[in-house]
Design brief:
Number of helices: 4
Radius of gyration: 19 Å
Distance between the termini: 30 Å
Mean pLDDT: 77
Helix content: 55-70%
Largest sheet: none
Low-confidence stretches: none
Shape: elongated
Order of helices and strands: HHHH
Amino acid sequence: MCIYGVLQERLMTIPYGGTDEEPETAEMFTSSVFLVLMNRLVTVCVSALGIVLTGDSFKITTPLNLYAAIAFANLVTTVCQVRVARFPNQAARVVAGCPPVHT
């Protein structure tokens, strides 16, 4: 998970393209929704592979409407997390997210 966080931050904060002679042509990755979509597609593929390899069934036994609110909340938080990756660095986000320690 840490490796994914580092790669996500690098993708969102480091310019790509351009050359040494023309660094002003470098661009930033701006489509955080595309990044989340690719993350979800890879997750679905890995999950499907796991189901096939373990011999489990793809049959859904729980009503899908019970998952709707949780899935939507997860999608929104992931998009927000990726959008935040554009601004401060990982260390600042971790420190800002930690509660103060009271002794």
